């Protein structure tokens, strides 16, 4: 990563962490992905049931392998043997002790912005799991809530749509068409203004550009 991007991240991260804490999130900043993974694992008590949403950030972190090797009960959707089993594991994850995910965008004033097709990730963020751990690179930070919403729909969604089958316009053009395609991954948009109960949602920022 370019040194000037790194310097920007280092200066901005503590400001965003402070704003997240003002909004009752349990917030942290880590210099590297390796530090973020160690911190995230330390926040998951042994014996916990754990699930996760689809996330390139989690994949890049490699944290799923650590969970599989640890003392946890997993709703491991990635190891499902059939589409029906995958759906059941995704539903089960809504009852987990801990749910892991990333965020499509975060405003500098401390609000999370996420957009989803099926909605399982947003459902878990909003209600269900006892704790939610959100891990995000500093590339997800936008100066305002409006820009965070714009990022979620025009940057994250067109990239993420490539992970799924379908014929939404942005799969062809790479540009958001504000469509209502049946295959759109933009069915639901959620803005999490603050964590309720306080500290239920834990946000780990990584001072790197990571994920989409």
Summarize the structure.
By secondary structure, this protein is an alpha/beta fold. 38% of the residues lie in helices and 21% in strands. The strands form two sheets. It has a six-stranded parallel β-sheet, sandwiched between helices. The chain has a four-stranded mixed β-sheet with strand order 8-5-6-9, with helices on both faces.
Structural description of this entry:
With 212 residues, this protein is α/β, with parallel strands linked by helices. The protein has one domain: Rossmann fold (3-Layer(aba) Sandwich), CATH 3.40.50. It has 8 helices and 10 strands. The protein has helices spanning 3-22, 33-42, 56-61, 63-69, 83-92, 120-126, 145-160, 169-173, and strands at 26-30, 49-52, 73-74, 98-101, 105-107, 111-116, 131-137, 141-142, 188-192, 201-206. A 6-stranded parallel sheet has the order 1-10-7-4-2-3, with helices on both faces. The protein starts with a helix and ends in a 6-residue tail after the last strand.
